[in-house]
Amino acid sequence: MRTLDDLGDLRGQRVLVRVDFNVPLDDGKVADDTRIRAALPTLQALRDRGAALVLVSHLGRPKGPDPQLSLRPVAARLSELIGTEVRVAPAGTGADVAALAEELGPGEVLLLENIRFEPGETDNDPQLARELAGLADAYVDDAFGSAHRAHASTEGAARLFERRAAGLLLEREVRALAGLLESPSRPLVAVLGGAKVSDKIGVIQSFMEVADTILIGGAMCFPFLAAQGHPVGDSLCAPEDVELAREAIAGSGEAKASIALPSDLVLADHFGADATPEELDGVDVPDGMMGLDIGPRTAAAFAQIISTAGTVFWNGPMGAFELESFSAGTRTVAQAVAAAPGVTVVGGGDSAAALVRFGLADRVTHLSTGGGASLELLEGRELPGVEVLR
Predict the structure, then answer these.
(1) What angle do CA 240, 229, 227 make, to 5 degrees?
(2) Where in the sequence numbering do the catalytic residues fall?
(3) Enclosing H/E stretch for 181
(4) Mean pLDDT taken over the chain
(5) What is the pLDDT of residue 350?
(6) Rounded CA separation 212/257 (Å)
(7) Average pLDDT of the residues in 83-98
(8) Closest residue by Cα to residue 246 from 197, 306, 173, 305
(9) From the CA atom positions of the chain, what is the Rg in Å?
(10) DSSP state of 152
């Protein structure tokens, strides 16, 4: 994969940088600037080399121009973080935008308006790609979270640049995640949670071939328990997920990895902050009850396995951690991952949110910003935004 070192001399030149500034807004201000901060090393490295920057990002899923999804609040926050004015273009392309880009001097920064305001972005429209490419002399993609999409700003425009490269964040993401599959320190333990088996069946299948142990918690455990014949009460458990779980269990006998499921649970009669937790010594969920967390015995067992791992990958909470009464399982796993002596890679928004909530975000080797891109890479699928940088 091409890196910043492959771009050569950038003094006095413009670089089109695809960033991931898809951040939450609150009353017209950035509510969480984590993704903006993640891009700062790449932006600073390019500015240090004398480049002017034309930044491209999306925000939300607009169907057209929408003032509520303007990137102006992002520009204001980025200006504060880098200590220089970040101008905002009135659109993603057009004569006025091209003129603003032409005016840029070394180290100056222009942020294009939300690229998804342009109808051709998600269709990878060739004309939009050409217009974007006309704004700069080189291209850098640092938006790993969008690398699994073949959009005009992530794939189409990139192909039009002779000089194109991965930013520092995208490079780090690909190396960390690919390393899990190619050369992990062993034992390799995958901790998978969240809501649906169908969302992660590809990752489960991938890790069954390379991991030593797969720990399954969260609502995702109930299709596996149901496939084994256990009643799951009112727990989240789609019929199609049960069939996928049954197939995974059937194939586990010939797989490298063993699958570990909960041995106890925390239940309630409904989902809500006012729900009363009840510990269940076992996994047979009564009618009218739902599982909302792994139990303390399971959490301790999972933590022990994690503590002996050479490499840990964690994606998905162990329960409804956003509710304090059902956060213990996720907290125990998060603490175990943070304390693990080996390489620790955490992916997925909920897992990242859990680490932040428990004050552990700075105690893992790599915290992925990728979401769907992370999962697709671990499934062994090609990411258009990465392949174009090969």
Answers:
(1) 30
(2) 35, 196, 349, 372
(3) helix 168-182
(4) 95
(5) 86
(6) 4
(7) 97
(8) 197
(9) 23
(10) I
Tokens in use for 53?
């920057």
- Whether the ω angle into residue 67 lies within 30 degrees of 0, i.e. cis, is no
Residue 372 has pLDDT above 90, yes or no: no
Give 131-184 pLDDT, tens digit per residue: 999 999 999 999 998 999 999 999 999 999 999 999 999 999 999 999 888 889
d(Cα 345, Cα 366) in Å, to the nearest integer?
Answer: 5
Give me the DSSP letters along 123-160: TT-HHHHHHHHTT-SEEEE--GGGTTS--IIIIITGGG
Token pair, residue 354, equals 């859990």
DSSP 73-122: HHHHHHHHHHTS-EEE-SSSSSHHHHHHHHH--TT-EEE-S-GGGSTTTT
Residue among 325, 323, 324, 306 at smallest CA distance from 314 = 306
Directed axis angle between helix 328-339 and helix 296-307, to 10°? Answer: 10
Encoded tokens for 189: 């333990």
Please report how many Cα atoms fall inside a 13 Å half-sphere around the Cα of residue 141, on the Cβ side: 37
